[in-house]
Amino acid sequence: MTDQKDIIKEFVEQGQGIIEHSKKKYPDRTFMFEFTARYWQDIYDARENGTPIVMTAHPGVPQEMIYALGAVPFAIDALPIRMASSKDTAKYIDLSEKIIPSTICALDKVDLGAVMSGDLGFKPAAFIYTTLPCDSGRTAYPAIAEYLGVPYFVLDTPYRKDETGFAYSAENLKDAYEFLQKALRQKHDPEKMAEIIRRSNEAIGLLTDITAMRKLKPCPLPSRLLAMNGMTGSCMGSEYLLDYLRELYEVGKAAAAKGQGCTPGEEKYRVLWLQNMMWSSVSIMDWMEREYNAVSVMDSFGFTGGQRIIDDPYNDKEIFRGLVERCLAYPMVHGASGPAQVWLDLTEQQIEDYSVNLGLFAGHVGCKHTWAAEKIVRDMAERKYGVPVLSFDLDSVDIRYKSVDEIKAVISEYMETLEAGRVGV
Questions:
Q1: pTM for the whole thing?
Q2: DSSP-derived secondary structure for 298-366
Q3: Which of 11, 76, 102, 222 has the fewest CB atoms below 10 angstroms from its CB?
């Protein structure tokens, strides 16, 4: 292709530029950008050094077992999220639509298009994907596996999240780990696995504490950090994730001790996003803080804390069972893969725990299955809790569908209605 590029190298270079800019303009935010930059740097270094890279399709694949075998995980869904705020996704969406329907989620279309373009600059040693959370993934991931021509394994994640589902998935995960050992030509190292599990245990504990801080009034942590919670599952078990979470915990703890919030005036609105985060326009959450003293305290498909801690990192049975329970509690698997009652229960819990008084359903057009249940969730929030909900559509990955200015106009009109008292809070 005439417009061949090196996506990973480009992300690394952009990341360093963002860090340098942040040090000058927003030094208190630099640790956030260092975290995301390190993710792409690790993949770039592995590619350049010949370290095996295992592609995964969702945080529903436990990254710990990849790190434990000396490889580097690459959650391919991180790619479209990283590019979502620009028109860079257009190339890959248009390319993928030559072989899959245009109705497929743009997230998956970017994944496939990036692989087809050759812009990744490497061929993974293996590919593991899951059957959750949606039909789009089940359409695109097999196409990616076939196009790559590398060893792949499908984690048959269950619809039911109960004892039967956990037991089935744990056995399936053991098979995936054996597959990885063969694909990478590596043997299981109990000490290495225990080291990785201890790291991820600490990360889960920190995430749980950090998430609990968002329940405080005023909320001590900025809204935009919610969008980064989903990324933690893409590098669970890494040392740099711990560096980020430790610093984030201290930042939140210090702000909470002083009673500091993140809005310029008195915190007025505590917002719950009832669908995915707006990856294409995360800055809108900053804007809502400034314009309306509205802080985003949680999102329905985000990390809500309390994931399983694996007590014995040498016990294989406990390890695989614990990893399965974690994966089935990650965004978006826990709320978006069905049944609808799970999403309802999760939303109710969040409204109560986080003192929510405003809901936003920014419905990603690719998540057709969640649109089917949108009214059920919205009616529950409004009727049971008196929480007003604004619903609107957007494409969280393809900015051509609706621009940031158009989204702001929709939110502004609704917020002005709230401010005028025409909708109760």
A1: 0.91
A2: EETTS--S-PPP-S-TT-HHHHHHHHHHHHTTSTTHHHHSS-HHHHHHHHHHHHHHTT--EEEEEEETT
A3: 102
